[in-house]
């Protein structure tokens, strides 16, 4: 499932795994729940739409945040389009809608969540 994940993503299909124990969504799919580590996960298709609840700054001015998908919460994931210079101000404006996207670095894809209406560029 994990190996086909990016092919499916390319085709516009977002596959994720939902934890049978806590209901958290592992996206991209992982071998166990990214929140509680429970090994029994159920494959689901997700819309990719969600809300960014909180984020923080990582090295190299990248950001990661906690996204609540329509299908359930996820573990922390990379986010784009947020204010990386004033994270206090940026967090004060949350929650805001985000959508899943893929950032290609050569042939390697990383799932990121992008703010749908960036308050930076507006
Ligand atoms: Zn879980």
Describe the 3D structure.
The model has no long low-confidence stretch (mean pLDDT 85). The N and C termini lie far apart (38 Å). The strands form two sheets. A five-stranded mixed beta barrel has the order 4-5-6-8-7. A three-stranded antiparallel beta sheet has the order 2-1-3, with helices on one face. It has helices at residues 2-10, 87-92, and strands at 14-19, 25-26, 41-46, 49-58, 62-69, 72-80, 96-105, 108-115. It is mostly beta strands and 122 residues long. Bound molecules: zinc ion (ZN).
What are its keywords?
five-stranded mixed beta barrel; binds zinc ion; three-stranded antiparallel beta sheet; 2 helices; globular; 122 residues; mainly beta
In short:
This protein has 122 residues and is mainly β. It contains 2 helices and 8 strands, in the order αββββββαββ. The chain has one domain (2-115).
Regarding quaternary structure, what we see is single chain
Task: Return the structural class.
Answer: mainly beta
Major sheet size, sense and barrel closure: 5 strands, mixed, barrel
The helix/strand series, from N terminus to C terminus, equals HEEEEEEHEE
Strand segment tally:
8
Q: Per the principal axes of the C-alpha atoms, what is the gross shape?
A: globular
Radius of gyration, in Å, reads: 14 Å
N- and C-termini, Cα separation: 38 Å
Overall pLDDT level? 85
Tally of separate domains: 1
What is the overall number of helices?
A: 2
Strand order of the largest sheet: 4-5-6-8-7
Strand content: over 45%
Q: Name the bound molecules.
A: zinc ion
Low-confidence parts: none
Classify the helix fraction into a percent range: 10-25%
């Amino acid at each position: 499932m994990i190996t086909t994940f990016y092919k499916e993503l390319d085709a516009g299909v977002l596959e994720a795994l939902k934890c049978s124990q806590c209901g958290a969504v592992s996206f991209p799919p992982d071998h166990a729940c990214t929140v509680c580590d429970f090994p029994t996960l159920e494959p689901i298709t997700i819309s990719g739409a969600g809300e960014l609840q909180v984020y923080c700054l990582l090295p190299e001015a990248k950001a990661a945040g906690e996204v609540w998908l329509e299908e359930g919460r996820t573990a922390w994931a990379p986010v784009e389009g947020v204010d990386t210079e004033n994270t206090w101000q940026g967090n004060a404006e949350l929650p805001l809608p985000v959508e899943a996207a893929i950032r290609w670095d050569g042939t390697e894809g990383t799932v990121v969540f992008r703010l749908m209406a960036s308050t930076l560029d507006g």
